């Protein structure tokens, strides 16, 4: 009660109690609109000439107990006010920043995918996608990736691959010839075998992907330009059992599942024995369906043991080294994977087709 | 080729029944690809000889009869059928098909009522039985046909399986182009199941028997002569008289039909039959049409015309080989006989020809004439001359069987190229071990011997000391093109034991690191960059191109040596000299679907006059209906070169030294598509390796492209093989502050900023480290205001105010000297 009477006794500005001052501060703090006002309020109440300083200065002559009590009271209020002002300043700063951001509003829902921007996609050709994947599988198994020219001579496309002049096998591959009748467009990537043997001493293993050309009428499943990937491994003591193991491993990796393979005789002049490799139909697991024509097996690729004449043509002694070779039809794999029904789309340059394989 | 199981069984005794599916599978896995199997003649055992014993009108149908038939001697009716045939009458013998039979036309007889009356099976016409196209009435059987007997027995008809062999899978196996050779395979495939090959069918004794039946006292009226060098390898001929040309007996006609050949008459059919049996074609002449006493085998020596059996006039060249008499050519060697000298229904005297020809010559002539016959198809595979005599004897055997009155005149006459008939057999020396190593499986010696002998190889051990050694004599039928060396022997063993019996084993290979070649690495980086940073789609177009497209694109026609001899179409008959024409075509195609797009291709191009050299080019196209995306493309290409660590300069035409080869590798001289301003040459190591350009309207118009197209072409081959030797070394961070100086000058609107920058760069201020355009805006009068930022820096010390001031003044004065005053 004495406090209250004392309060009443100092009922003007110069004689307000700390409590009254604090109440007054709180009221004013509520009205603060910006940081300048807040700093102003701070200096007014807490500055050197502010009311609390005045009160504390006026305590010089009062009794020590009173001095202590009022002093403590003032300091408590001052601390609270400091904190309040600090919080208020932060609040106001945040408010001002947000207001500035509000002014810089942009429509983040206007995404490219919501806009008409023409064809705004990028990506590799599906054959590039599959080819790279397969190249990487081969690299992981220690195979080099080689390249070769499209325009070859008779030697690289035929003779060195054990297809001598006048061999009926030349009829099997309708060849595009150039006017000098010496140069031709390679009919298979097997030419890369010949280049590979020219460049390497055994043992070696490599693959050679690329375009090949056949003078053949085009339709939904035939193209005059298509893609193959040739493979060759030469070492001492290579056998048919190694070939089977390798093909099974390779194809299981390509198809990402365990693949059953079977070999049956197939004639290709550059291999002996030559095989057609079938895989157990991945659709019906060999039970027979429309994809495998009820056979349970699907013909996938030709392969075989490198013919001794091919090794000899590559300056490799067949009594010392043996090897196997195989050819993958890349277009076929692409068409199987994406269920494409017309091979002519591959070279058509139609972005409505290509953009379906986009990276983004 | 079609193979009849029934025919095969003439030569093989099979001890077990084989299902269609197994047969197909077994032959496919061991010998050649079987594309399908068809069963034929399954109706024969069920159709029986019946007698019509009574008939009455169908109560409901005017034209139908109800016919009672019997299988019994007492003519007791076995049932009643509804029959519409006009020739039905009581007492006739006819074939009766019961309910459940499937006829060759695919119809399965069901128990059903015809106009209210149940028909118990059906009486058949010849057409319904599949033996003739005659469909006018019931097939009337002979009076003495035994009642109740199946037509299988009565006609000697067979239930057969026909294998459809993929011809491509037997191009290397001339021996499989006849049933006899195929039978040998089948006997070997089923060796473990007791199959037995009838080797005695055409053995020495048989040969002697036929020869003795030929023996006569006449002189041969005709003798073959190989005149000079020709396609002829060997020629056998036999004259036969007292021939009576007639339709072939049913068994022979049936066999021919079952494998897809139309029966004609006994003589023609014998020719075809023997060819399908032994794989060697033969020809039968009407001897009355032959002049003189010689059959001459020779090159024509001059162009001439021969009307072949198919009634087409064929023009032969001087080097084609023919069979001729003294007057005229008779047969195109190995391909087809002439129409005049062939057998006709009045022929009574024949000459049987069995010959062998050089495979490649037959192939050459037949492909030139566009005439592929059953005969040429076989000769192209390289046939075995040692098989000719047997073929002739077999033909004579059949002639005697079909015309019992026929008899040979004179003896078998022959001529052959030197060495053709007495060439030593092919032998291969190897070892059991070598064969097993090659297969990667241990196969018992006995099994190897068994398989080889079953396939007619002669196997012996040449060494007493080494039981592993193996001496193999290859049968002559397999030695023409097929079997050559140990690997071929391994194939024989592998396919007969079944490749699937070989256990897969991993090869043992030394550890060796591999990486992509520099070129391949670069190609992949470029592809990735164009996708991830260029925002482009990769396309493939043909490396082949047509003259029309080149012309539209304003490119020359490509030099002659790169134009194909045998193109499929004029749109793809030559190698492309550049990616640009295809890129224009691709743009024209896709602008129909999209307002803007970016694409690239990494493809081969074939520059003219470079001796068939090939270059790997990158082509990039940015298309937009309205905007010129030049700087977008320029920046993309600039960054591409940075990312692949190849230093590239971008030169405008006039900046280029005249010594530099022009861009003709990328665009033609005075190209219609060349933009007068928007064109950069790309320079790497002193050579031009590409260009970036806007395509000028003239070229766009030719392709009806509505919009703005910018292109870049880069010859990756110019630098793809360089191993990246980039050595990036850390530079210490700057120790002293640098000073920026911005100044704005007024320049004519068409003044390239690069020239303005160059003025500052060449102002010889030591401390100047960088000059770049800060801002740029157009002024009302068409000039532009360019703000440049110059950076001064000295790595050794802090620049003084005076030094900076001097630099600034120097820059301003150089610019103003060049006519670029500071903006007021």
Would you mind describing this structure in some detail?
The complex is a heterodimer of chains A (360) and B (824). Chain A contains 13 helices and 9 strands. With 360 residues, chain A is of the alpha+beta class. A 7-stranded mixed β-sheet of chain A has the order 1-4-5-9-8-7-6, sandwiched between helices. In chain A, α6 crosses α12. The longest helix of chain A has 40 residues, at 64-103. Chain A is rod-shaped. Residues 1-12 of chain A have low confidence and may be disordered. With 824 residues, chain B is of the alpha+beta class. Chain B folds into 6 domains: 2-41 and 160-202, 2-Layer Sandwich (Phenylalanyl-tRNA Synthetase, Chain B, domain 1), CATH 3.30.56; 44-155, OB fold (Dihydrolipoamide Acetyltransferase, E2P) (Beta Barrel); 206-416, Phenylalanyl-tRNA Synthetase, Chain B, domain 3, CATH 3.50.40; 427-501, Phenylalanyl-tRNA Synthetase, Chain B, domain 1, CATH 3.30.56.10; 518-718, BirA Bifunctional Protein, domain 2 (2-Layer Sandwich), CATH 3.30.930; 739-817, 2-Layer Sandwich (Alpha-Beta Plaits). In chain B, 25% of the residues lie in helices and 26% in strands. Chain B is built from 20 helices and 38 strands. In chain B, a hairpin with a 2-residue loop joins β33 and β34. The interface between A and B is large, with 90 and 97 residues.
């Amino acid at each position: 009660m004495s406090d209250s009477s004392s309060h009443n006794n100092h009922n003007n500005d110069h004689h307000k109690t700390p409590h009254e001052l604090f109440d007054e501060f709180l009221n004013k703090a509520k009205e603060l609109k910006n940081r300048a006002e807040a700093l102003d309020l701070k200096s007014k109440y807490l500055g050197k000439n502010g009311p609390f300083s005045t009160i504390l200065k006026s305590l010089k002559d009062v009794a020590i107990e009173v001095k202590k009590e009022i002093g403590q009271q003032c300091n408590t209020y001052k601390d609270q006010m400091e904190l309040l002002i600090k919080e208020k300043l932060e609040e106001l700063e945040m408010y001002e920043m947000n207001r500035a951001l509000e002014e810089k509003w942009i429509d983040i829902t206007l995404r490219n995918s919501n806009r008409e921007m023409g064809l705004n996609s990028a990506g590799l050709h599906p054959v590039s996608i599959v080819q790279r994947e397969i190249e990487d599988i081969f690299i992981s198994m220690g195979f080099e990736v080689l390249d070769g020219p499209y325009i070859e001579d008779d030697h690289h496309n035929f003779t060195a691959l054990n297809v001598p002049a006048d061999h009926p096998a030349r009829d099997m591959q309708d060849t595009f010839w150039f006017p000098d009748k010496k140069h031709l467009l390679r009919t298979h990537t097997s030419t890369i075998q010949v280049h590979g043997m020219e460049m390497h001493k055994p043992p070696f293993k490599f693959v050679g992907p690329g375009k090949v050309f056949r003078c053949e009428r085009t339709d939904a499943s035939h193209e005059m330009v298509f893609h193959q990937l040739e493979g060759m491994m030469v070492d001492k003591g290579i056998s048919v059992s190694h070939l089977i193991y390798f093909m099974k491993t390779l194809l299981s990796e390509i198809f990402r599942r365990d693949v059953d393979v079977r070999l049956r005789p197939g004639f290709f002049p550059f291999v002996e024995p030559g095989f057609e490799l079938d895989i157990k139909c991945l659709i019906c697991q060999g039970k027979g369906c429309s994809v495998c024509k009820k056979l349970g097996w699907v013909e996938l690729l030709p392969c075989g043991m490198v013919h001794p004449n091919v090794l000899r043509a590559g300056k490799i002694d067949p009594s010392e080294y043996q090897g196997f070779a195989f050819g993958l039809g890349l277009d076929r794999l692409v068409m199987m994977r994406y269920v494409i029904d017309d091979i002519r789309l591959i070279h058509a340059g139609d972005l409505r087709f290509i953009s379906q394989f986009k990276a983004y | 080729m079609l193979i009849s199981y029934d025919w095969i069984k003439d030569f093989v005794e099979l001890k077990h029944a084989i299902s269609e599916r197994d047969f197909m599978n077994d032959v496919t896995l061991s010998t050649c690809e079987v594309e399908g199997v068809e069963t034929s003649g399954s109706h024969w055992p069920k159709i029986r000889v019946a007698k019509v014993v009574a008939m009455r009108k169908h109560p409901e149908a005017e034209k139908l009869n109800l016919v009672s038939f019997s299988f019994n001697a007492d003519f007791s009716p076995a049932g009643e059928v509804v029959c519409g045939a006009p020739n039905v009458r009581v007492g006739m013998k006819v074939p009766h098909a019961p309910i459940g039979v499937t006829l060759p036309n695919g119809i399965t007889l069901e128990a059903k009522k015809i106009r209210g009356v149940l028909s118990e099976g059906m009486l058949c016409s010849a057409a319904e039985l599949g033996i003739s196209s005659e469909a006018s009435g019931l097939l009337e059987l002979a009076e003495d046909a035994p009642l109740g007997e199946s037509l299988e027995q009565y006609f000697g008809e067979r239930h057969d399986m026909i294998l459809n062999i993929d011809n491509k899978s037997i191009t290397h196996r001339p021996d499989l182009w006849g049933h006899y050779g195929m039978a040998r395979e089948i006997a070997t495939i089923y060796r473990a199941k007791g199959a037995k090959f009838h080797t005695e069918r055409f053995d020495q004794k048989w040969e002697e028997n036929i020869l003795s039946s030929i023996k006569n006292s006449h002189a041969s009226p005709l003798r073959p002569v190989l005149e000079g060098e020709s396609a002829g390898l060997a020629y056998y001929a036999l004259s036969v008289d007292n021939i009576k040309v007639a339709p072939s007996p049913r068994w022979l006609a049936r066999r021919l039909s079952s494998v897809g050949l139309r029966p004609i008459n006994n003589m023609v059919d014998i020719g075809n039959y023997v060819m399908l049996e032994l794989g060697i074609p033969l020809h039968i002449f009407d001897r009355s049409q032959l002049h003189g006493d010689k059959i001459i085998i020779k090159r024509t020596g001059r162009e001439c015309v021969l009307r072949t059996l198919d009634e087409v006039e064929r023009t032969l060249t001087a080097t084609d080989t023919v069979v001729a008499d003294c007057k005229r050519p008779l047969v195109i060697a190995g391909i087809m006989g002439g129409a005049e000298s062939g057998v006709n229904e009045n022929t009574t005297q024949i000459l049987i020809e069995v010959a062998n020809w050089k495979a490649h010559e037959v192939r050459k002539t037949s492909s030139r004439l566009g005439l592929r016959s059953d005969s040429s198809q076989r000769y192209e595979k390289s046939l075995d001359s040692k098989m000719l005599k047997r073929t002739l004897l077999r033909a004579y055997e059949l002639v005697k069987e079909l015309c019992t009155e026929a008899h040979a005149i004179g003896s078998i006459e022959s001529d052959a190229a030197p060495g053709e008939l007495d060439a030593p057999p092919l032998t291969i020396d190897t070892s059991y071990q070598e064969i097993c190593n090659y297969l990667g499986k241990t196969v018992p010696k006995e099994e190897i011997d068994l398989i080889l002998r079953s396939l007619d190889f002669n196997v012996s051990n040449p060494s007493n000391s080494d039981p592993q050694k193996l001496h193999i004599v290859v049968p002559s039928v397999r030695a023409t093109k097929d079997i050559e060396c140990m690997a071929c022997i391994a194939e024989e063993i592998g396919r007969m034991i079944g490749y699937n019996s070989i256990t897969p084993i991993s090869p043992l290979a030394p550890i060796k690191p591999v990486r992509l070649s520099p070129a391949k690495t670069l190609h992949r980086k470029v592809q990735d960059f164009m996708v991830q940073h260029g925002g482009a789609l990769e396309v493939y177009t043909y490396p082949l191109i047509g003259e029309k497209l080149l012309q539209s694109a304003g490119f020359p026609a490509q030099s002659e040596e790169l134009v194909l001899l045998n193109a499929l179409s004029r749109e793809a008959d030559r190698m492309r000299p550049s990616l640009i024409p295809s890129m224009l075509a691709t743009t024209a195609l896709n602008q129909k679907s999209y307002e803007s797009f970016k694409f690239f291709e990494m493809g081969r191009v074939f520059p003219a006059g470079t001796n068939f050299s090939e270059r790997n080019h990158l082509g990039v196209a940015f298309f937009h209906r309205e905007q010129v995306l030049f700087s977008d493309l320029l920046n993309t290409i600039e960054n591409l070169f940075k990312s692949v660590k190849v230093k590239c300069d971008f030169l405008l035409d006039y900046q280029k030294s005249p010594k530099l080869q022009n861009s003709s590798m990328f665009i033609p001289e005075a190209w219609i598509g060349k933009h007068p301003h928007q064109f950069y040459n790309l320079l790497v190591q002193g050579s031009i390796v590409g260009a970036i350009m806007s395509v000028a309207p003239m070229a766009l118009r030719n392709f009806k492209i509505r919009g703005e197209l910018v292109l870049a072409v880069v010859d990756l081959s110019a630098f793809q093989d360089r191993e990246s030797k980039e050595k990036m070394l850390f530079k210490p961070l700057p120790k002293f502050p640098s000073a920026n100086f911005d100044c704005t000058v007024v320049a004519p609107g068409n003044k390239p900023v690069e020239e303005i920058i160059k003025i500052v760069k060449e102002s010889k201020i030591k401390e100047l480290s960088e000059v770049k355009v800060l801002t740029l805006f157009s002024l009302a009068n068409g000039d532009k205001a360019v703000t440049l930022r110059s950076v001064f820096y000295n790595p050794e010390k802090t620049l003084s105010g005076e030094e900076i001031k001097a630099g600034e003044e120097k820059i301003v004065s150089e610019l103003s000297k060049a006519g670029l005053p500071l903006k007021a």
